[in-house]
Structures are given as structure tokens and as C-alpha cells.
Design goal:
The longest helix has about 40 residues, at about 50-85. This protein has 12 helices and 10 strands. It folds into 2 domains: about 1-80; about 105-339, Bira Bifunctional Protein, Domain 2 (BirA Bifunctional Protein, domain 2, 2-Layer Sandwich). The termini are far apart. It is an alpha+beta fold and about 350 residues long. The chain binds 3,4-dihydroxyphenylalanine (DAH). 3,4-dihydroxyphenylalanine binds near residues 167, 249, 282, 303 and 305.
Length: about 350
């Protein structure tokens, strides 16, 4: 009898299952209701009293080894499942969701879009790599025109010319080529100029272009639109239009807003005048309309263009344009609460 138990002890020690199914069969065979261990226990009464002690020790040894073996094997085959269950503590408090912040340029761009959207302007976009026609020629800037020098261009290819657009006025052309009046659109986007980088200027920045073409659009429509816009964005509606020159508009003007002289900063940024230049504008030159196959006898319109960085810097009192492109989270995170 004892030798049978000892045989089983050896078997338990050397048992090496392939998978969990083998382990389960082993469990049933050894410690199941009709398993070996119960069988040996039930045989106890038949054992001679002189052997009872040794027999009892042997069964207990078998039982202990079997349970130990099963524990080890369960751990081995179940380790992935059980440990993952143990790790998921469903009562643990939710980890705090770190929200990022929007870039100030995006915030101001969207505010401007929203303001014009309310008066019926849609949004249009064009490519940043442009051809000569859309960036210059169609905008009344033919080759060798001296005004091309106003914009230091990054050329990608010469003859035919491909370049990084120097202004979003190129989108005006694309939009007029593809749409019939009435047209009311604003075009935000990035532009590039071969300029030295300093606190006030950068070789790339963002503009928003506006264009309105319809029958009988007049200069006073332009002025009213600008008054509406400056009031909405800056809360100030005192503006002045200074005569200026742009090849694509005639007449052309520079728009100044009366910022006031309430603080030392106001004195500094307005150079003591109280006035700040915020954009260029004018009545679309008839040549530009004709270049886009719009009859300039039937239609007229106005256009304007402004730099988003300049307006962002004004509104948030940012002194150096370069900080807008550094992606320093200590700077960007300050805009967390702005919408
Ligand atoms: N494209 C001009 C620039 O980049 C800005 C501008 C001025 C746009 C007058 C216009 C405009 O549409 O009418 O300097």
C-alpha cells in the first residue's frame, strides 16, 4: 500500500503538463472526489495498525505535494489572466485628463472667421505653393512691375515660376476663377517672405484676406464692414482710412484703429499717436476682376488683408513675434482658458 503512495509521490513530483487542460485532469485524478488521495484515505482503516503511522505520513506528504504542485501550475498557466485582473482596480479614482491649449494664432483666426461668418462670409483656402499668375500677375502685378519688390519672395522654381505665396490675396484670384458673384469670402492662411527674423517680423506668418464682389459695392460698404469688424474684435470702432497703394485695389487704403493713450504701453505701441495700423484694403481693381473673367462693368467689390500675428500680439500684448513659433508650453498654456 505505502509503496503505491510513494509511486504517486514520484509521479506528482515529475508531472510536467503541456497546458492547463493537463493540469485540470491532474487535479481531478489526485484531489477530485474519486481521486487517489481520497481513495488512499478511505483505505486507511484497512491498514495494519503497525503501518498506520507511516501510511498516514505518506498520504499527508502526497496531499501536501499535490496541492503545492497545483498552486505552482495554476500560477504558471494563469499568470497572465490573474495578474491583469488584479491590476485593474475599478474603484481607483479617474486619472486627471490633461487638456492642451489652443495656439493664440488659431484662437484669433477663429474669432475673425466668426465675426465675418455672422455677416455672410464663407471661408476659402488656397495652396501655400503658388504659381506666378495667382500670386502676382492676375493681381495686377505683371512681370518687372516694381511693386513685386514690396514682397520678398521665396522662389521654388523659375520659368515657369513656382513660389511660396507671399500673401493670401492669391486665394482671391482662385476664388473668383471658380465662383460667380455675389462673392463674400475670407481666406485665412500661412504666407512666406524672405525677411530677416526679428522681434517684429518673421519669414512666415499668417494673414486673413477678405473679398466681397457684387453689383454696386461701394467704398462706404467697405468702411461699414471694417467698422463692424473692429468693434466686434477690439471693442473699438474709431477707425481711419489713409490713402495708400496696392496694385490689386484702386483706390487703396491703410486702416488705422484708434487704440487710445491710456497706458504707457499704449504710448509705446502707437508711438505716442494713439493710432495703430491693422490692415490694407481697397476697391478691387477692374483689371483683377477681368483677369478672373468677371465683368467689371456689372460688378465691383472690395478686398482687405491683415496679418493675424500682428492682431494677436496687439490683443494679448505679446512683445516678440518669435515666441509664437517656439511652441514653449509655458507660453502656450497661458491660453488654456481662451476660446
Ligand atoms: N496682400 C497685401 C499684403 O500682403 C494685403 C492687402 C492689402 C490685401 C490690400 C488686400 C488689400 O486684399 O485690398 O501686404
Amino acid at each position: 500500500m505505502i509503496s503505491e503512495i510513494e509511486k504517486k509521490i514520484k509521479e506528482v513530483k515529475s508531472f510536467n503538463p503541456k497546458d492547463f487542460k493537463d493540469v485540470e485532469n491532474f487535479r481531478i485524478k489526485y484531489i477530485g472526489k474519486k481521486g487517489f488521495i481520497n481513495h488512499f484515505f478511505s483505505e486507511f482503516k484497512k491498514v495494519k495498525s503497525s503501518d498506520k503511522k507511516a501510511y498516514g505520513l505518506a498520504i499527508n506528504e502526497l496531499k501536501k505535494l499535490t496541492i503545492q504542485k497545483l498552486e505552482d501550475l495554476n500560477y504558471k498557466f494563469n499568470s497572465v489572466n490573474t495578474s491583469s485582473i488584479e491590476k485593474e482596480d475599478l474603484t481607483r479614482p479617474f486619472s486627471v485628463l490633461e487638456l492642451g491649449s489652443r495656439h493664440p494664432i488659431s484662437i484669433i483666426r477663429d474669432k475673425i472667421i466668426e465675426i465675418f461668418y455672422k455677416i455672410g462670409f464663407d471661408v476659402s483656402e488656397g495652396p501655400e505653393i503658388e504659381d506666378d499668375w495667382h500670386n502676382f500677375t492676375a493681381l495686377n502685378l505683371p512681370e518687372h512691375h516694381p511693386a513685386r519688390d514690396m514682397q520678398d519672395t521665396f522662389f521654388i522654381e523659375k520659368n515657369p515660376d513656382f513660389l511660396l505665396r507671399t500673401h493670401t490675396s492669391s486665394v482671391q484670384i482662385r476664388h473668383m476663377e471658380n465662383n460667380n458673384p455675389p462673392i463674400r469670402t475670407i481666406s485665412p492662411g500661412r504666407v512666406y517672405r524672405n525677411e530677416d527674423i526679428s522681434a517684429r517680423s518673421h519669414c512666415f506668418f499668417h494673414q486673413i484676406e477678405g473679398l466681397y464682389i457684387d453689383k454696386k459695392v461701394s467704398f462706404s460698404d467697405l468702411k461699414q464692414t471694417l467698422i463692424y469688424f473692429t468693434k466686434e474684435l477690439f471693442g473699438k470702432s474709431k477707425i481711419r482710412l489713409r490713402p495708400s497703394y496696392f496694385p490689386f485695389t484702386e483706390p487703396s487704403a491703410e486702416v488705422d484703429i484708434y487704440w487710445g493713450l491710456n497706458s504707457e504701453t499704449d504710448y509705446r505701441i502707437t508711438k505716442g499717436t494713439g493710432w495703430l495700423e491693422i490692415m490694407g484694403c481697397g476697391m478691387v481693381d477692374p483689371n483683377v476682376l477681368e483677369n478672373c473673367k468677371i465683368n467689371s462693368n456689372d460688378f465691383s467689390g472690395f478686398a482687405f488683408g491683415m496679418g493675424i500675428e500682428r492682431i494677436t500680439m496687439l490683443l494679448y500684448q505679446i512683445e516678440d513675434i518669435r515666441i509664437l513659433y517656439e511652441n514653449d508650453s509655458r507660453f502656450i498654456n497661458q491660453f488654456k482658458n481662451s476660446i
